[in-house]
Specification:
It contains four helices and ten strands; from the N terminus they run H-H-H-E-E-E-E-E-E-E-E-E-E-H. It is an alpha+beta fold. It has a domain of about 150 residues: Sandwich (Immunoglobulin-like), CATH 2.60.40. The relative contact order is 0.13.
């Protein structure tokens, strides 16, 4: 066995190992299950493009095979030169043009709908990314999420909360994203060091987190409970492979119970300690 063939075999074995590295239990040959209202529009566009390109592939390959068979080389038959057909060339040039322009217009409409202002009752959550993890900040007992200023983000102030913002004093933080089912969630996204990305395949959401900026146009509404995963899909450093956080979508009653417990714990932790004289 020569060196080239041996190298090809080794490469195939390594490639197969990479395929085995990811375990999928649903939709093995397509996208993960969508669980958001906005994701339905993304899936409709994706499915339409897949069907359209699949049909175009089948049609072009069928015509190609037909020409290979019908106009194959035959003994005693000379090849015949043809300049082409101007009308047909106009048709098969115009059809892709119309399709691509139509897709561009429709996809832009979908983009605008997904990035419109969130509903007034959306739950605000501030998410801060860093090498290599995620922190989430929720509104406290007053129900108001404190402001965030990207210029104030530091090791001691990881969310960039202005010191004079009273609404931010009772906020609490977690290392998991817990959200209610059926209620819009409005994300305020920051990065403390390099470019990261808020990527949740089940939500059909991908948004970069850029240092020095607060990204405030990301919002979604989950329509069913479940456990999901938030991942960073930007190569952000040596620990990028492990930069993920759990997401729990809970029924409203369970979420309210979890939220009340966290608010109470945050209030208890904020109480000043009083030293008693011996």
């Amino acid at each position: 066995m020569n060196k080239f063939l041996r190298s090809i075999i080794i490469l195939l074995i390594l490639s197969a190992g990479c395929v085995w590295a990811e375990t999928r239990t649903e939709n093995l040959f397509w996208t993960p299950q969508n669980v958001t209202v906005g994701g339905r529009e993304v899936d409709r566009l994706l499915n339409f493009i897949f069907i359209l390109t699949g049909a175009a592939f089948i049609l072009t390959q069928a015509v190609f095979i037909m020409y290979l068979v019908r106009y194959r080389r035959k003994r005693g038959v000379k090849a015949q030169y043809t300049h082409g057909h101007n009308f047909l060339e106009f048709v098969w040039t115009t059809i892709p043009l119309v399709v691509f322009v139509g897709l561009a217009i429709y996809s832009n409409m979908v983009w605008n709908r997904l990035h419109r202002d969130p509903p007034a009752d959306a739950l605000p959550i501030n998410i801060s990314s860093y090498q290599f993890g995620w922190d989430m900040r929720y509104p406290g007992a007053d129900g108001k999420l404190g402001k965030t200023d990207a210029a104030l983000i530091s090791t001691d102030n990881k969310f960039g909360v202005p010191p004079d913002d009273e609404s931010g004093h009772d906020d609490f933080t977690t290392n998991e994203l817990v959200i209610p089912v059926g209620r819009p969630v409005h994300i305020y996204l920051n990065s403390r060091d390099v470019i990261h990305s808020f990527y949740v395949p089940n939500f059909r959401i991908y948004q970069d987190a850029v240092p020095g900026r607060t990204i405030s146009w990301v919002w979604f509404e989950v329509d069913r409970p479940g456990n999901f995963e938030l991942a960073c899909s930007q190569l952000c450093g040596s620990g990028h492979y492990n930069m993920k956080a759990p997401i729990r979508a809970l029924p409203v009653e369970e979420y309210e119970k979890w939220y009340a417990e966290r608010v109470k714990a945050a209030a208890e932790a904020a109480k000043p300690t009083v030293a008693h004289a011996p």
